[in-house]
Specification:
About 40% of the residues lie in helices and about 20% in strands. The protein contains four helices and four strands. The protein starts with a helix and ends in a 14-residue tail after the last helix.
Length: about 130
């Protein structure tokens, strides 16, 4: 999938070089199994594909940089999951007023959930 994405994005604008920041496992897999396809693609379309391993990326994460002749970035495509902090890890410097507003918001959302679903359309019988 990563190679297909790289190939699709490569035809954007005037791309001459592609830097793909991917997890180490994917880089090893691509180098061992898809090296001939990479060489063919590079020769046929005159692109340079650089696979760069990143230790901090997990398997579905990637970052693709499309560069022009002078190595200036044209476009950067990334799929990186940001870790969301839970309330347990947030600082406890919240004031009492914000806690009260949180309770109000929760009660409003509960009342919205209790509404019944509306029928948007019905099927008519053919006559």
């Amino acid at each position: 999938k990563m190679m297909k994405k790289i190939e699709l994005y490569a035809f954007d604008n005037k791309t001459k070089s592609i830097n793909a920041h991917i997890p180490e496992k994917i880089k090893i897999f691509i180098e061992t199994n898809l090296s001939k396809e990479i060489e063919y693609f590079q020769k046929k379309y005159s692109f340079k594909i650089n696979l760069m391993p990143n230790q901090h990326f997990l398997v579905p994460e990637y970052k693709i940089e499309l560069l022009n002749k002078s190595k200036k970035p044209i476009k950067i495509i990334e799929n990186i999951n940001k870790i969301k902090l839970t309330k347990a890890f947030e600082t406890k410097s919240t004031s009492k007023s914000t806690k009260k507003t949180d309770k109000k918001v929760k009660t409003k959302s509960l009342s919205k959930k209790s509404k019944t679903a509306r029928t948007l359309w019905t099927r008519r019988k053919a006559s």
